[in-house]
Design the sequence.
């Protein structure tokens, strides 16, 4: 699959954008006109620069408000187009994007539009260029791709074809299946964007909230399947207008964008494999190495300067230490199948606190290969002789994901730590979920990374009110629920990231006994206000004995259609805390209603410690 | 007018919110339930705390999903309500907000809803409390205030009344005039919020984008006029859900909120003065001191560590120095009626670079009084004997606005600077506009401040693409255009504020001659790429001679329905730059289409200087 990206997706100067696209491995770029106009590089210099970088210049865009106009304006528009064609010749760009008219069209007559496009085709012919006509979702008369396709068919000019943009088609709820009725030689260009489902006017939605494929709610695999079945084999380009990506580092965004297209290629191949193949599909697509759901979260690695405090908490929750690793500066604590690898921040792990997640998988090599094919950076790791090989990659925020082979109930690498005693079993059984706070510039990239690399599914995102702003939370999980990762988007306000810690939640089947046992070991949980218990009593009318016990132990309560959820938190140690959860009868959530209470309590606790300005 | 604010408008803990509300001078607060539930203070302690602070607790909110349900759920709901009434008794709160049912209502029968509300009224009676029923804009059956008013009338219970919320009424485009048909004793509570006009689903619009009165697009003065004519004399409360305010400093937000209600009181009084007064209006409202539009921008004060560079630029643009002030560490440069007071940052003026704006007004004392009534902090200023008194206040970002009396063509304070020579006249005539970059947490507050304190009007806001993100720009202006202030919202991404400087634009009637004269004095303007001139040529088909001259002098061009705009920029000096503009034939804009080119050029220039990481 040939890949391209519009320069508008990336921040910085045009030159920075070109270099970032090249470094991420894109084959080409679309030149977004404002980026060219603002550049001090001449068109010829841009052409040379792209050639030197090995990038093709696939599209010049956008040209607006051409068709459906009166004769006088048509003449003006043809002159305007000729000026752009001259420019395209200087750039060496063959294809120009023409958006359907939003401003100056007086008529929606398809024959008129086709006749005017034919005239445009004649001018384009003089310059040896071609025009890709795109139905904008908010076009004045032409706002769906089937109309645009009819007009192009009527124009019947070799220089006039279509541009298909997934956003304009799917945002309006149009069925992409009719793409298959379009002749491949009339599809001049394809732009792909994902988006969250919003009830916003489609122009604002398009201009501010597009996402890279795999980060939103559109079914782009099916879309691509229809496209491939036409026989289209041109570039698949990203045109993603997004307020966050406009601010983020362009080199990181370009990698993130490239990953989304690789994932999309996989989805396309999967879609083609299953759907009816009405025509040959010359578009080269390749599946990613398939990976099965992790059998286990084999460990979570925490890096903190407050290890002593964390050790105490682990001990109070019933964890036991295994001692230091034989060759690395980390130690292991475990209980049941829950394992915490504890280390201090160092130059390789400056942040975040949840520095890594270890997964037990059937085929670590396949998992690594999939991650590498998704443009993940491999974490260099040295193993001494006789140590279990672990392979891993870096998530967008710098944390690590490691894959180890499934070798029975206890990973063999456990023996690399001081104590070789059998693992200690108590009330905690395993890791339930891991919560990774993400800075604003990594959130969408992290959603894509975990979804694509680990083949996870996204649950509906929720918003949680914290004393420092709204926190958006997105859970990704494996089908069987063995792996659940909650990504929290830290409010962008200055300093807010300092007070949104990350956390690990452990699963137990008896949280009340565990809380009681922990208390006997001196544990003091995060304080939950008495008002909270009055509130859940009013809401759920709990058994008085249960309510008393919850209150006494600072255990929180939630309920969904399936069952109940009981959970408690530790205080934060630096920027990390721990949680213990009990899911009764298939409760599927994470206690989102309780999260604001927890955030407020943590905020007060830090304020009391004087950590807040 | 009695004022109140919902705790949800402010960030922080409940206690911080109460203190912030008190410090801003609110009479009372609404307790937003999640704030209470998350608080470690008991209801009794909250009551005492509010009493100690002199705040009334005006409303407990929200209670949801009560009416229109089946008999079994009704019993549950009545029990749930009784628990909340118990809590309200402990808090000493008399009124509870009941939102119209969005989830559990099975019937929209108004008689059924009224009968159920009557039962709720009976329970409320036992606790001595009352219920204010509000039609949510997204209520399942009840989504407009007239329906809610009919249900309350049918319920016919002294403990059951209405809550009116401007957002729920105006967001749906409902006419607020029918408020006048409601009996004042049935209006238990009033919540005011402004909002920008968005085509977003009303729930998301309400939860994320409300603004304080005066910051959005709603006609709240007219709304308040209708309300006052009912005879309502209860609290006017702010309930503003806003993602930014949730993150901002609660003390600054509370002042900002209090200012909005004082402005609203003024608008109400103005509305009552002009409309038909069908009933007595006991709501005490007071106009603000009226101020006329400034006669002149008498000076702009710049504080920068790079004064030498700025002096050179001013000289090249034809300004002449007057010398140092006789008692203050600032100097004056002028040309025509454009005056720049130049100083260095000091402890009183650490930032921003555009440290102050001096306005010539008819009555400085009235202008100051208006600003003070709008809760503006007065700037302490010492005058030595014989110096012109200037009075001023601080804008939300810390910059200053000073008022001086109109004493003819040249302000008398000019004589306080070294040279007493007559002012030097050249091609620059006056200040055209001032552009103040605002950090994210001050933007809306700044819109309200300038609009209310200086009685300016807002123009439509625009978004401009910069290499570091989208910049939202909002112009405020006096009717006659003498004073124009553009507020730019800096993208929130880290570090972006460092590269969005502020600027002063000067008006001339011959920008080309001025640019040429400046060049003869060694001036080198901000580089504008050749691609830009090719683009405007394609767009406007300019006279070749004019195009050549623009290109040669790095002058930019724009056009609107009225006329033409020619302008050029200086390089940035620290975080400030200068612009010279020529408005031909009543051009009313600011060259928004050219702003991205300028921002990209500034970005490159700083990158070349190595200012960027």
Sequence:
């Amino acid at each position: 699959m040939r890949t391209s990206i519009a320069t508008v997706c990336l921040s910085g100067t045009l030159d920075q954008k070109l270099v970032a696209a090249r470094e991420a491995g894109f084959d080409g770029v679309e030149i977004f006109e404002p980026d060219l106009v603002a550049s001090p590089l001449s068109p010829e210099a841009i052409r040379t620069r792209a050639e030197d970088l090995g990038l093709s210049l696939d599209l010049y865009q956008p040209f607006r408000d051409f068709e459906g106009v009166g004769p006088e304006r048509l003449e003006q528009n043809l002159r305007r187009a000729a000026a752009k064609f001259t420019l395209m010749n200087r750039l060496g760009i063959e294809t120009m994007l023409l958006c359907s008219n939003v401003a100056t069209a007086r008529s929606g007559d398809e024959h008129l539009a086709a006749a005017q496009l034919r005239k445009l085709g004649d001018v384009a012919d003089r310059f040896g260029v071609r025009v890709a006509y795109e139905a904008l979702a908010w076009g004045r008369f032409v706002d769906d791709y089937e109309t645009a396709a009819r007009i192009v068919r009527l124009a019947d000019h070799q220089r006039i074809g279509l541009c298909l943009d997934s956003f304009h088609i799917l945002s309006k709820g149009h069925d992409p299946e009719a793409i298959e009725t379009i002749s491949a030689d009339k599809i001049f260009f394809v732009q792909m964007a994902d988006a969250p489902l919003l009830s916003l006017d489609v122009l604002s939605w398009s201009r501010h909230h597009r996402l890279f494929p795999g980060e939103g709610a559109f079914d782009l695999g099916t879309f691509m399947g229809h496209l491939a079945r036409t026989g289209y084999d041109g570039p698949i380009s990203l045109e993603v207008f997004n307020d966050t990506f406009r601010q983020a580092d362009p080199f990181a965004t370009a990698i993130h964008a490239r990953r989304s297209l690789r994932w999309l290629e996989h989805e396309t191949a999967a879609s083609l494999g299953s759907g009816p193949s009405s025509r040959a599909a010359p578009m080269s697509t390749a599946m990613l190495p398939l990976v099965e759901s992790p059998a286990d979260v084999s460990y979570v690695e925490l890096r903190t300067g407050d290890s002593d405090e964390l050790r105490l908490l682990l001990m109070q929750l019933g964890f036991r230490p295994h001692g230091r690793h034989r060759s690395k500066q980390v130690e292991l604590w475990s209980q049941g199948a829950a394992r915490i690898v504890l280390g201090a921040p160092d130059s390789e792990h400056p942040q975040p606190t949840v520095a890594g997640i270890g997964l037990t998988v059937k085929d670590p090599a396949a998992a690594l290969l999939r991650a590498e094919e998704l443009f993940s950076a491999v974490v260099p790791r040295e193993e001494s002789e006789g140590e279990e090989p672990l392979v891993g990659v870096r998530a967008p925020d710098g944390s690590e994901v490691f894959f180890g082979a499934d070798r029975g109930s206890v990973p063999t690498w456990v023996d690399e730590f001081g104590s070789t005693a059998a693992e200690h079993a108590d009330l905690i059984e395993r890791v339930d979920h891991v919560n990774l706070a993400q800075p604003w510039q990594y959130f969408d990239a992290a959603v894509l990374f975990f979804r694509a690399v680990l083949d996870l599914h996204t649950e509906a995102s929720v918003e949680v009110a914290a004393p420092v702003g709204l926190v958006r939370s997105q859970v990704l999980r494996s089908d069987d629920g063995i792996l659940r990762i909650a990504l929290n988007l830290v409010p962008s306000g200055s300093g807010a990231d300092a007070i949104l810690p990350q956390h690990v939640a452990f699963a137990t089947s008896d949280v009340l006994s565990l809380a009681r046992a922990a208390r006997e070991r001196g544990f003091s949980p995060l304080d939950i206000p008495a008002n909270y218990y009055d509130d859940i009593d009013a809401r759920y009318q709990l058994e008085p004995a249960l309510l008393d016990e919850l209150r006494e132990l600072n255990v929180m309560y939630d309920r969904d259609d399936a069952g109940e959820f009981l959970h408690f938190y530790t205080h934060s140690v630096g920027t990390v805390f721990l949680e213990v959860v009990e899911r009764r009868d298939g409760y599927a959530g994470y206690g989102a209603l309780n999260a604001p209470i927890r955030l407020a309590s943590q905020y007060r606790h830090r304020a009391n410690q004087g950590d807040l300005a």
The CA atoms of residues 171 and 202 of chain A lie 7 Å apart. The first helix of chain A runs from residue 14 to 23.
